[in-house]
Amino acid sequence: MSVLVVTGTGTEVGKTVVTAAVAAAAVAAGRSVAVLKPAQTGVTAQEPGDVAEVERLAGAVTGLELARYPEPLAPATAARRARRAPVRPKEIEQAAARLAESHDLVLVEGAGGLLVRLDEAGSTLADVAGLLDAPVLVVAQPGLGTLNITALTAEALRSRGLRCAGVVIGSWPAVPDLATLCNLADLPEAAGAPLLGAVPEGAGTLPAATFRTAAPSWLAPELSGGWDAERFASQHH
């Protein structure tokens, strides 16, 4: 089963756009892709959520959302306040396994960071990754402050016996400052895992066709792309 769990070092770090880029690169490489969003928060029933955004940007992918809660809160809190059932790890595992039967790659996009609670029992995306025995891709911010939260996320993964597949910078700025430039070398050290890409800021606003064409250039070969960390760093002295 080829499943990749996508988490962020926090909220608003570019996780959905990175998920779309990974999906687009895989599709361009000839793979069939499904994207699973276990819990969508902060979106009403009539509004498009993260799955719709990935489908819009990446194109020919299968999207599935398991639960939706209107308030922009952690899934457990949003479910409680909406008086709706939370989504639980076993349900997510089963949905991912079903998708994996008919797709080459299943991307499971979490909500917020790794240890955000899914239910009243304190279950998290880390529990989902454990049930699936799947590697976890960490989407990180580019600038000052990212090293600590990236290191904490990686430590949380290791402490649970989970594998960090690598780190992708979710929104690489057009004019990077000194801390951002230094983080190209420091992020892999903080994570204990390779830097696997840098998606430019504003990528999600590109026309879909442009996004799909460019996506492989933002991601390393491990993610079906052609991006090279050393070459990228050499271009940003």
Question: Brief description of this entry?
Answer:
The chain is built from nine helices and seven strands; from the N terminus they run E-H-E-H-E-H-H-E-H-E-H-E-H-E-H-H. It has helices at residues 15-28, 50-58, 75-82, 89-100, 125-132, 146-159, 178-191, 208-218, 229-234, and strands at 3-8, 33-41, 62-69, 105-113, 136-140, 164-172, 195-200.
Mean pLDDT: 96
The structure class reads alpha/beta
- Portion of residues within helices: 40-55%
Task: Give the radius of gyration.
Answer: 17 Å
Biggest β-sheet description: 7 strands, parallel
**Low-confidence runs of at least 5 consecutive residues:** none
Give a count of the beta strands, DSSP E runs of length 2 or more: 7
- The total of helices stands at 9
> What's the overall geometry?
globular
Order of helices and strands: EHEHEHHEHEHEHEHH
Strand content: 15-25%
What multimeric state do the chains show?
A: single chain
Protein topology:
Elements: E1 3-8, H1 15-28, E2 33-41, H2 50-58, E3 62-69, H3 75-82, H4 89-100, E4 105-113, H5 125-132, E5 136-140, H6 146-159, E6 164-172, H7 178-191, E7 195-200, H8 208-218, H9 229-234
Parallel strand pairs: 1-4, 1-5, 2-3, 2-4, 5-6, 6-7
Helix pairs in contact: 1-2, 1-8, 4-5, 6-7
Sum up the structure in keywords.
single chain, alpha/beta, 237 residues, 7-stranded parallel sheet, 9 helices, globular
Report on this model:
The chain is α/β, with parallel strands linked by helices and 237 residues long. It contains nine helices and seven strands. The protein has a seven-stranded parallel β-sheet, sandwiched between helices. The mean pLDDT is 96.
